[in-house]
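so my prof wants the structure for this chain in the tokens format not the other one, which i didnt know existed until like an hour ago. anyway here's the sequence
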Amino acid sequence: MVDDLLQALHFKDEEQVNIDGKHYLPRKFKIALAIPPSNDVDLFANDLGFIAIAEDDRLPGFNVTVGGGLSMTHGEENTYPRLADVIGYCPKNKTLQVAEEIVKIQCDFGDRTNRKHARFKYTIDDRGVDWLKFELNKRLGWSIEPPVLLPLSAPETATDGSRALMTPGITRCLSKMDASSTPKSIR
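here's what i got, hopefully its the right format
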């Protein structure tokens, strides 16, 4: 299954892909991949993520997440952490196309005038997840499918006393802080 995963994300012909240039994006762009139930990469804290959907010993595709990022500037309320949204499912053979189009959307609509507002999470918050899905589907020429629902597991307690919430196949740690101290975008 891991070989299928790597093959699905591998750039076959680097000459075809022109989006990896030094100045293509307005800011860094982090991409992560998780194979449930493991989420070692903290998928929801990345600009783009792929959650492997396994069926028996096959890998038919991925749930796609967008818009995560934990960076913020202390004392500046217009910078904040944001957990990624799950926007849909794509078949394995369309993964690279989805990734390329999402990167191109950030290139075209990301804020190049304000470094602190240049991450994909702000592009999505400014324009909306529905806008992103519409723009992505338009560029793809086909519609991304609804996300595949994964079974929920019971919450577990980590050794430091924090709770690990098992969301659809992905582990997301919740700290011991109370909700009033949690930034709005994470609540």
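also thought this was worth mentioning. Helices lie at 2-9, 95-109, 120-127, 129-140.
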